[in-house]
Every structure is written in C-alpha cells, then in structure tokens.
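agent> fetching stored inputs for the flavin-adenine dinucleotide docking request
agent> found them:
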Amino acid sequence: MKFVSLVASLVFSASFTAAAVLQQLQAELAPHLSQNDLISTISPPRWSSFNAPLPGAVVNVQTELDVATTVKYLTANGIPFLAQNGGAGWSSSLDLNSDGVLINLASLNHVTFNGDKTQATIGGGSSISNTIAQAYAAGALVETGTCNCVGTLGALLGGGYGSLMGLYGFGVDNVIAVQVVTADGEFHNVTATSDPDFFWALKGAGPNLGIVTSAVVKSYPTTQDGMLAWTGTLTFDSSQLEEVVEAIQDLELQPDMNLFMYFISSGPPANEPVILVRPFLYKGSVTTGRAAFSSLYAVGPTRDTTAVLPYTQWNAGADGFCTYGARKPSYGVGFQKMIPSTWREVWNSYVEFQKKPTAANSTVLLEAYSLTKARSIDPNSAAFPHRNVNFHVIAIPWYEDPSLDDQAQAFGNAARDLWRATDQLAQNQTYINFAYGDEALEVVYGDSLPKLREVKRRLDPSGQFSHWYNIV
Ligand SMILES: Cc1cc2nc3c(=O)[nH]c(=O)nc-3n(C[C@H](O)[C@H](O)[C@H](O)COP(=O)(O)OP(=O)(O)OC[C@H]3O[C@@H](n4cnc5c(N)ncnc54)[C@H](O)[C@@H]3O)c2cc1C
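agent> prediction call returned; pasting tokens
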C-alpha cells in the first residue's frame, strides 16, 4: 500500500514538473519562435523505448533560428535539454526527465546541392532515407549510414559508417563546414580554418558541443550506372557458423565492397534463429557480386535474395531493423579478428535469449568495411578515434516485456565480454554510436579525450550538452 502511494506521488510530481515546464515555455519561449504553436508534450518516436528520454516538453523547431532561440532561452533558465534527430540513439546516457526539454530537429530536413553537385548541405534533422532520396534526384552520391530511419548527421557526428566508406572514407572525412548552435545560443560556421580544434572535435563528438543545424559535405556526381549496387542477403544455418566466420575473416574487402552478418529470426511463425550475410558490391552485377563473395557462396547459403538495386533501395534490406518501439538496450564492441569459437559462444547465448517470449526479433549485427581509404586519411583530422578497428559488432536484445530487462542485460553483457576478451586491441574500443552507454570515456573517445576536454571547456563550460557520453 505504501509502495503504491509512493509510486502515485512520483507520477504526480513528474507530471506536475512536466506541466510547469510546458506552461513556462508556452508563456516565455513560444512568442519568440517562428510559429506560436511549436511547443508540445508529444515526443517524436524513438527506435528503442528502453531508458528513452521522457521530457516534460518538446520544441518542434521549424528553422535554424528557432534552434538558437530555444537553446539561448533554455540555457539562460537552467532547463536541461537534448536534441533529437532520427531518434535512433539508444545510449543509456540519454537521461532527460520531466524537468527537461527535447528539441525536435525533424523539420530541418532540407538537402540541397551546389551547381556541380560536389557539395551537399544537409539539414540537422534529415533522415538517411530523405538524404538519399534527394541525392538520387540530384544525380549524386552522399556518404550516409546504411539504415533509412537514422538521422544523417546523428550518425555522421559520431564517425559515420556507410556503404560508400571504402571509396570515400568515413562520414566525418567528407565534412566541409558545420553550422552549429552552441550552449550560449550563438551560431558558428565551423570549418578547418575558422576554428580547427572545434572542427576536429565536432567530427566524432559533435553532440557534446552543440546542435548542428546543417552541415556541408562532399557529394559525388554520378551517372545512372553509378547509382547501382549488387546487394541482398544470404541465409546460413547454425551448423555453418564457423565456416561463415572464417570466410569473413579471410575475405579481403575491396573499396567497392562491404559486408554485414546478422544473427536474426527467420520470421514468424517459426522465428528460428538464422545467420544472414548481407554482401554489398558497388556497381556490381550478379556475376561480379558472386565472384567477389565466392568464399561465402562456397559455404552454401540456403537462400539468396541478392540483386542489382538502385541507390534508393540499398538500405531497404535493413528496414526491419529500423522498426521503432520495443526495448532494445544495445551493446557494441570493436575488435580485430573473427574468431569462430568466440562466435559460437555468442551464438549459444543469443539463441537462449532469442527464444524468450517477445524477444524473437533480438539481433546480433556485425559490420565489416574496406578501410584502406579511411586509413589513408590523416587520423588527426577528426576526433573519431577508431580507424584502426577492423570489425564492429552490436548485440541487440529486442523485446517488449520489461520483466526481461535483467536477462537482456545478462545476454548483452555476456556477448560484449566474449568479444572484448578476444578483441586483440591494446585497450577496448567501441564506436560511440554503437556503445551501450556505460563505457569508460576512453573506450569511446580513445586518445582524442584530452583534447576533447579542452574544446569542451571552451565551448560548453557549463555542460549543457551532457546527455551523450558527457566529456568531463
Ligand atoms: C537501426 C539503426 C541503424 C544504424 N545504422 C548506422 C549506420 O549505418 N552507420 C552508423 O554510423 N551508425 C548507425 N547507427 C548508429 C547511429 O549512428 C546512432 O544511433 C546515432 O546516434 C543515431 O542518430 P539519430 O539522429 O538517429 O539519433 P538521436 O537519438 O536523435 O540522436 C543521438 C544523439 O545525437 C545527437 N544528435 C543528433 N543529431 C544531432 C545534430 N544535428 N546536432 C547535434 N547533435 C545531434 C542527439 O542529441 C543525441 O545525443 C544505427 C542505429 C540504428 C538504431
């Protein structure tokens, strides 16, 4: 009885705080925005509901100036805030509560190209699907992530892995200029020459320093043929795991190739755990694709959905992975070598978790790219510290029932420990956008941390941008 009344009073006090924040914003901030009706209580959807931010109010900014006005007001009034772009971030560090405000960037979704299509300006709220659709219409390629729902700049600011990495480097390697609002509500147009340290820091730790309202990135004009790739999925069963793992380890990815491997459900009603490999060959045909990935074909896939697809369809195979909602605490790790015995142990724990009620969609995702181009770029040009890492993997317990939280954590931690134990790295490294949220700062920021601390002290001295692996 006592417990019930404590819960009731907590709920009451959270909704009271939320109502007070909303009222204050409507009275004091709304009149200064581009429209009077931009403040609401409805949060935009998030990819994972596990530990999701629960703000008291949402500001649905319509213009870049709205972002500056909102940030200036919130900082001056000591109100915590967080920007949301694609809403795909799952980090447990995203701890915004009912006394805080979410700044929804979704309307900043413009994507424009310069005359010769060698530069694209991307709005701070443009999703990857929107950026690709605009690039396709313009006849150019832009280096984006591989899932349509993710924020283009949300992914890029952490580093930016994507299908064209072997040709053009990481997302951060393609940035020309960044328009960013800092904690004082001021705009900065940051380039390599205007403020080299800020420019460097934005490329790996951007969400810690400000809100990027738009960024100018390199784009690559091309022909219709240059907008085709051979991709799809190859299915394998559990007994083939070691052979698949060895084939991936031995495969020398060329700049036009990359590869994902999933542990995933075969789909309802059986929901059998299977191994999927998603090969990708830029400008590939059925013949060249099969030849480039012949070692995987030699293992004997039980199903093959590969085909030549246009640029706008390259990410379509991952649309299921983009489904919003459900609980998905996710555990990323970087490592150097595919070791069959490690993968067999992870498979066993995956199978145990995946068969639990509501957990059938649980996934393990491995990403492998050609890194020659990315490693030819000066490592000191960006704060992103993981150019040396060969493979990235994420264990994603995916379920509806909150009573599975502890078991999900046990599975995620067990998988992460197994990969870390055989990572062959001098110290654990995890791509910030794939990390769980509890990692030491050195694990996500690597050797960039001391200099990032200096930049953070200069540009966000009161720590307004503290919800994404806060640099302290
Ligand atoms: C289904 C899925 C697929 C993915 N695929 C890829 C991939 O192919 N390549 C890859 O590199 N990563 C990928 N990721 C990881 C992804 O990059 C991170 O989750 C990223 O943080 C998501 O950005 P978002 O804008 O969608 O999320 P959000 O939750 O909106 O943002 C995450 C963090 O970034 C900040 N942020 C976002 N936009 C801005 C901005 N404009 N200015 C300042 N801060 C900002 C937010 O404030 C928040 O702190 C994927 C994740 C998922 C869930």
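agent> quick read of the result: Residues 2-28 form the longest helix (27 residues).
agent> awaiting further instructions
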